[in-house]
Specification:
The radius of gyration is 20 Å and the shape is globular. Helix 4 runs parallel beside helix 5, helix 5 runs parallel beside helix 7 and helix 16 crosses helix 18. Helices cover 48% and strands 15% of the residues. The chain folds into three domains: 148 residues, NAD(P)-binding Rossmann-like Domain (Rossmann fold, 3-Layer(aba) Sandwich); 165 residues, no CATH class; 71 residues, Orthogonal Bundle (Rna Polymerase Sigma Factor, Chain: A). The termini are far apart. By secondary structure, it is an alpha/beta fold. Bound molecules: nicotinamide-adenine-dinucleotide and magnesium ion. Nicotinamide-adenine-dinucleotide (NAD) binds next to helix 1, strand 2, helix 6 and helix 11.
Length: 391
């Protein structure tokens, strides 16, 4: 029986994970759940799964949940705050931590899980982007096991032999597939006035709002290049991006002998999550089975870096190293939030990220404190740029 701590339980990845836990009650037991502020969402989860412990970032949401659970006689203990989140991720009550908080807010708990030697199922790519070396070193030193559930990285992991190895043997390069998002084939001129609804309407995947916008700008693929580089220990030059609108080939590994191995499946996050939950076993995921004849064709093309400069900015941040990926990520989080709130246009996202990278001096990303300082400074600069109407 694996004992699960689910960080980001009320989100899109959280819900897919809960669906799998409910399908396999004999394999998994939900010990701890954590979320930002959705007390109604967490109350529903506590009613169904009766976890031992629930943690909120927000203290008011925690008070509301505590009162609600007490009224219903549900014995889940409720805590609040960033420190409680970190403690929950390292708590010996669970052996497996599903890291599915969105954004840099997930870094400290993910790092704590790594130091505590957990089996970590990583959805929270921003944690690895902000602090790749730090997190991978902590995984190694803590004796943790890091299993990717981002679909591309999970696909690559499935195409590599055996346990995760950095760098993997015999590999020439990795190919990350990108659906191209809702604006594939659009020009910069067409992208100028797009709405939040259009940007969040992903053609193949149903996801939280932040990653949906990241998919529309291709920043998501940029973050994934950085994620792949740290996860698999390969330089940016050996990680390629190819647009594949069907989202059926989830990524590929090209070997030195010319073999390409790919993982295919329907676009349902329960497949990578099921793989990582059960690894090295295989379990039912509930995902629709791929119908190859109905699919008929698979298309591949080069990404358009002029219309979608965020992918290039992310690759440059990886090359620059140090705090550059953390700066890129924090500027992007501020810009995406401003876009979602109607305070910034779609093309403004790349403009804010670019201008912020120009203004914030690079520093080291060797400690959690250094990364959090770079993150905080970047947010101040990026917010000021949004206020000043840049972009
Ligand atoms: P979401 O917005 O649907 O959910 C985010 C979760 O994080 C929620 O439970 C929210 O309460 C919690 N949260 C937010 N801020 C928090 C904070 N400060 N402290 C504690 N909890 C906080 O997002 P999502 O789509 O589920 O994505 C989660 C992560 O998984 C992201 O890093 C995303 O890039 C990654 N991911 C998602 C998908 C997908 O299909 N949704 C695919 C690949 C990777
Ligand atoms: Mg992905």
């Amino acid at each position: 029986m694996k004992r699960i701590c689910l960080l980001g339980a009320t989100g899109s990845i959280g819900r897919s994970t809960l669906d799998l836990l409910a399908r396999h009650p004999q394999r998994f037991c939900l010990e701890t759940v954590a979320a930002g502020r959705d007390d109604a969402g967490l109350a529903t989860i506590c009613r169904e799964f009766r976890p031992r412990h629930a943690v909120f970032a927000d203290a008011d949401a925690a008070s509301r949940l505590r009162a609600q659970l007490a009224a219903e006689g549900i014995p889940t203990r409720v805590d609040a705050g960033a420190e409680a989140l970190v403690a929950a991720a390292a708590d010996p009550d669970s052996d497996t931590v599903v890291a599915a908080i969105v954004g840099a807010a997930g870094l400290a708990p993910t790092l704590a899980a790594a130091r505590a030697g957990k089996r970590i199922l990583l959805a929270n790519k921003e944690a690895l982007v902000c602090a790749g070396e730090l997190l991978m070193t902590a995984v190694h030193a803590g004796g943790a096991l890091l299993l990717p559930i981002d679909s591309e990285h999970n696909a690559i992991f499935q195409c590599l032999p055996g346990a995760p190895e950095r760098p993997p043997r015999g590999v020439r390069q990795l190919w990350l597939t990108a659906s191209g998002g809702p604006f594939r084939g659009w020009t910069r001129a067409q992208l100028r006035g797009v709405s939040v609804e259009q940007a969040c309407a992903h053609p193949n995947w149903s996801m939280g709002p932040k990653i949906s916008v990241d998919s529309a700008t291709l920043m998501n693929k940029g973050l994934e290049v950085i994620e792949a580089s740290y996860l698999f220990g390969l330089p940016r030059t050996r990680i390629r991006v190819v647009v594949h609108p069907q989202s059926t080939v989830h990524s590929l590994v090209e070997y030195q002998d010319g073999s390409f191995l790919a993982q295919l499946g329907s676009a349902d996050m329960r497949i990578p999550i099921a793989h990582a939950l059960a690894w090295p076993d295989r379990i039912e995921s509930g995902a629709p089975v791929l119908d190859l004849c109905a699919l008929a064709r698979l298309d591949f093309s080069e990404p358009d870096l002029d219309a979608f400069p965020c992918l290039k900015l992310a690759c440059e941040a990886l090359d620059a190293g140090g705090s550059a990926p953390a700066i890129l990520n924090a500027a992007n989080e501020v810009a995406v939030a401003a876009f979602l709130n109607g305070r910034l246009g779609f093309l403004g996202i790349a403009a804010i990220v670019n201008e912020t990278l120009n203004r914030v001096a690079l520093s080291s990303a060797a400690s959690l404190e250094a990364v959090l300082a770079a993150d905080a400074q970047t947010r101040r600069v990026a917010r000021a740029l949004v206020e000043a109407g840049v972009g």
